[in-house]
């Protein structure tokens, strides 16, 4: 399956009446532009009609016919491929980690030593992906080899899914929420998994108004309305820069269920 390529920039950030138009929309086999030259341009629906904007008309049509974003969960890794489909902004593989990996990750939390590693990887079809330096300071801890092998598998699977030439890897042990407010990511696609501690939190569509993202008073107060990733689960978060997903990135935040408890998190970003 050929994945949708990310848009060069998000074309519609807000779901309200105003549209933010780019000069060109890349759609299928050709670019779509307007009869007049412009850069980023904010227009109301009335403005789109008054200016006979091709770009604005297409964006309005997409709002009308685009289905409400869906979130899919399953116990097979095949569920991750569903994220490539239109209308799906989150897929979660509800897997169980092997015990030796769980124990390795929990040992890292117990040690409490800083861990923040970033790598840019270029996985090739046949070459061996070497990640022996990952968490190398803890290679003597039981389970390190199995943990690295699991990360390698995830990188390979992610690269295969989107035909990625370059992937950004981040492994961090955090004791504070990095993004405590609900938000969307301005990236095409991001893989997130938590090896120990509380997992990322996310919302089903309609729980929070998108136009009020970033406002503390608009966030849900009912804990039952907040979904949470469990340890070991692998999630693909579709962001605003995935072509056709503008204005529909999955809404999520760092875990607040245990705000001062450490957690070990891995993220993979599709860079090219």
Sum up the overall morphology in one term.
globular
**Rg calc:** 20 Å
How many beta-strand runs?
Answer: 14
CATH architecture of the largest domain: Sandwich
Helix proportion of residues, in percent? 10-25%
Largest sheet: 7 strands, mixed
**N-to-C order of helices and strands:** EEEEHHEEHEHEEEEEEE
Characterization of this structure:
The structure is a single chain. With 272 residues, this protein is an alpha+beta fold. The protein has two domains: 19-65, no CATH class; 70-270, Sandwich (Jelly Rolls). 18% of the residues lie in helices and 24% in strands. It is built from four helices and 14 strands. The protein has helices at 45-50, 54-65, 99-111, 144-162; strands at 19-21, 24-27, 30-33, 41-43, 70-74, 88-93, 116-121, 167-174, 189-196, 201-202, 227-228, 234-238, 252-253, 263-270. A seven-stranded mixed beta sheet has the order 5-6-12-9-14-8-7. The protein has a three-stranded antiparallel beta sheet with strand order 11-10-13, with no helix packed on it. Strands 1-4 form a two-stranded antiparallel sheet. A hairpin with a 2-residue loop joins strand 2 (24-27) and strand 3. The longest helix is centred in the middle third of the chain and has 19 residues, at 144-162. The chain is globular. The two termini are 17 Å apart.
